[in-house]
Amino acid sequence: MEELLDPVLGQVRVFLMPDDNKPRKLKYNLGHPRLLTFGGAYSNHVRAVAEAGRRHGIDTIGVIRGEEHLPLNPVLAHAVACGMTITYLDRASYRLKHTEEVRARLRERWGRDVAILPEGGSNAAAVRGCAELPAEIPVDYDVIACPVGTGGTLAGISAGLPEGRRALGFAVLKGAGFLAGEVERLQREAYGRVWSNWSINLDYHFGGYARSTPTLDRFIAKFRVEGIYVAKMLYGLLDLARRGAFAPGTRIVAVITGQPSTPVAECGAPTGFDSGEPRWRR
């Protein structure tokens, strides 16, 4: 596990843990013959579901926000190559995808036996998968940090923490106060209780999902990290360390969920941790 070295950290130590959380979220969601999920046109969650369907012999359906555009972009083309059936919902209907009315229409079309996985993959089963992450960390630590898009990864990490450790999430959305309620809901659905060992910082969204600023752009270029999720978390950690938010000697594990891939301008709305493999070297 590589350590992030920067003078601003002082006596705070930050260790970088590469972890593609998409397989974790899917691990306990794959016991169905047919799986339907949602995402934007560049959703790596949709891609991950398609790949899992191919590996495990599961029929998969990807419900994509907006209208069809041909030729398919590389993400959707890959999903189709994996055997996924792609369909589309107009944006008004997509905003109502969580309602029973829309779900009933989808089941009528795709079969009563279809399992519906939410956008980003965050549900009780996903939380149980993400809860396995803390036990795999090979270094001593006080805090685990992660970006937060839908809340599932943070909910799971918190549930899997040893006594005395805490989890710190960095919201990548503007106006994300609702995420605390989402984490609580997910923990209740997965375990019937809520942990108090986590918090979400709302101050480093840089204007909102897939938004950036010149300051964040310079940070991304310096550290060569994925910009929608990872850069905001790492910038937040360094800034908080600079401000003295962590006691000297605090050891932080930062979960690196993605690498530079899809240009920010091509991303339309959060679909969970939609990113690829980690990169963090200067």
UniProtKB/TrEMBL annotation:
Species this protein is from: Nonomuraea jiangxiensis
Any one Gene Ontology molecular-function term assigned to this protein's record: D-cysteine desulfhydrase activity
SUPFAM superfamilies (alphabetical): Tryptophan synthase beta subunit-like PLP-dependent enzymes
Family: Belongs to the ACC deaminase/D-cysteine desulfhydrase family.
Domain of life: Bacteria
Gene3D superfamilies according to UniProt: 3.40.50.1100
Domain Tryptophan synthase beta chain-like PALP positions: 42-258
Keyword annotations from UniProtKB, A to Z: Pyridoxal phosphate
Protein name per its UniProtKB record: 1-aminocyclopropane-1-carboxylate deaminase
Annotated catalytic residues: 43
Residues the record lists as N6-(pyridoxal phosphate)lysine modifications: 22
A Pfam family it matches: PALP
Obligatory cofactor(s): pyridoxal 5'-phosphate
Gene Ontology biological process terms from the UniProt entry: alpha-amino acid metabolic process
